[in-house]
């Protein structure tokens, strides 16, 4: 039976929208329910710190579409009946990082960290909505709405560029960090490399052996394919 209630799903959890929330933006709502990983930067769509992914079922195309949106601009009720995924829905140090988060951390793409959830969600939405691996140009384009005042962007692009080259194994941690055969993100430079450094304080000298990083995702041994958030079945009926 299809419910007439005003609902949305946030990170796989059903949420009933009670009366009196019509003036809330999605960002205010998310932070109000304790999901403070989504940041308030400019509050006017200019910085991308509030980026989240929303998923919606398209009855005509019979498939789910995924979009990165600025939660500071979206009225709460504009996402009614949709699935919202925030950075908390991807991963954490306790549960293990999502490969997008892990790659960014390894490449030193996060300094103060305020912009990081937004970058992660923009990249994640691109991967979820791409049938084939995105090109480097598409990755740069998808990050065009995210600002960072610390890193100079290069480590962020380098971190995410690895996803342009791999296709089948985005959610398996270590293997998702592999570029061409034998290459991965160098822990020293944060760039694709075939050195085998394990200490970020050492200087990269290049090398022929593939670097085998210890994945944060080995924390509980499960792969992301086993815990990726699915589209809530209830929303297929609405
Ligand atoms: Fe800057 Fe939303 S807070 S775009
Ligand atoms: Fe500080 Fe990006 S890491 S704003």
From TrEMBL:
Signal peptide: none annotated. Belongs to the xanthine dehydrogenase family. [2Fe-2S] cluster 2 binds at residues 112, 115, 148, 150. This is xanthine dehydrogenase. [2Fe-2S] cluster 1 binds at residues 42, 47, 50, 72. Residues 4-90 form the 2Fe-2S ferredoxin-type domain.
């Amino acid at each position: 039976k299809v419910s007439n209630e005003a609902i949305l799903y946030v990170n796989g959890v059903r949420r009933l929208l009670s009366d009196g929330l019509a003036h809330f933006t999605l960002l205010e709502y998310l932070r109000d329910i304790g999901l403070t990983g989504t940041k308030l930067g400019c509050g006017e769509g200019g910085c991308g710190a509030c980026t989240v992914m929303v998923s919606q079922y398209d009855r005509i195309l019979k498939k789910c579409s995924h979009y990165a949106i600025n939660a500071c601009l979206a009225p709460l009720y504009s996402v009614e009946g949709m699935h919202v995924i925030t950075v908390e829905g991807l991963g954490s140090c306790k549960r293990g990082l999502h490969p997008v988060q892990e790659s960014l951390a390894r490449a030193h793409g996060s300094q103060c960290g305020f912009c990081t959830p937004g970058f992660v969600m923009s990249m994640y939405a691109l991967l979820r909505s791409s049938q084939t691996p995105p090109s480097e140009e598409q990755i740069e384009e998808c990050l065009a709405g995210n600002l960072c005042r610390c890193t100079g962007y290069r480590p962020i692009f380098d971190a995410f560029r690895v996803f342009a080259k791999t296709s089948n194994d985005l959610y398996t941690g270590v293997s998702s960090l592999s570029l061409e055969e034998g290459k991965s993100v160098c822990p020293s430079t944060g760039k694709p490399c075939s050195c085998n450094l394990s200490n970020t304080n050492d200087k990269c000298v290049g090398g022929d052996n593939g670097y085998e990083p210890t994945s944060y995702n080995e924390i509980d041994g499960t792969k992301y394919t086993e815990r990726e958030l699915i589209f809530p079945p209830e929303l297929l009926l609405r």
